[in-house]
Specification:
The protein is an alpha/beta fold and about 170 residues long. The chain has a single domain, classed as 2-Layer Sandwich (Nucleotidyltransferase, domain 5), CATH 3.30.420. It has a five-stranded mixed β-sheet. Helix 1 runs parallel beside helix 2, helix 3 packs across helix 5 and helix 4 crosses helix 5.
Length: about 170
């Protein structure tokens, strides 16, 4: 049975999203993009822009599941707090849409897609382009979101396989 998965790379200025379908081992890109919020807008307005855009994307593409990148620890506490706010909006919107949500650490996503947890953005985008057979490399934030979706597809397949083996 084919599944449609949305991956999210949270951010308050640039939030990447990517939707894939998967059936067995085949994975295809459906759509992807970046939500760019207003540069000088207050944080609350940016969060509303993110929520409104995600509501439209979810309504249009109807994913069954979601993967969201978790917070990485940063020396900049203010940036980490803003990222946390964006993730909160994402998680709430996914919950309101009735999606099951899994969270993945950035190093886990990079390792799953590239083969090493310290891969740079270009390496991730290049592998995503190859894995999904895209004609052009997506913007970095969208490529990261597609990588999250791919990670979710692979991790959930393993989880389902293990569940059937233990029955």
């Amino acid at each position: 049975m084919a599944r449609t998965i949305i991956g999210i790379d949270p951010g308050t200025r640039h939030l990447g999203w990517g939707v894939i379908t998967t059936a067995g081992t085949k994975i295809d890109a459906v759509s992807y993009g970046v939500i760019h919020t207003s540069v000088d807008a207050p944080l609350t307005d940016k969060l509303m822009e993110i929520d409104d855009a995600l509501e439209e994307i979810l309504g249009r593409l109807q994913p069954h599941e979601a993967g969201v990148e978790s917070i990485f620890f940063s020396k900049d506490a203010q940036a980490a707090a803003k990222l946390g706010h964006a993730r909160g909006v994402v998680l709430l919107r996914m919950q309101r849409a009735g999606l099951s949500v899994a969270e993945y650490a950035p190093a886990q996503v990079k390792s799953m897609v590239v083969g090493r947890g310290r891969a740079d953005k270009l390496q991730v985008a290049t592998m995503v382009t190859a894995l999904l057979r895209l004609r052009t490399r997506p913007p970095a934030d969208a490529a990261d979101a597609l990588a999250v979706a791919i990670t979710h597809a692979r991790m959930s397949a393993v989880t389902r396989l293990l569940a059937t083996k233990t029955r």
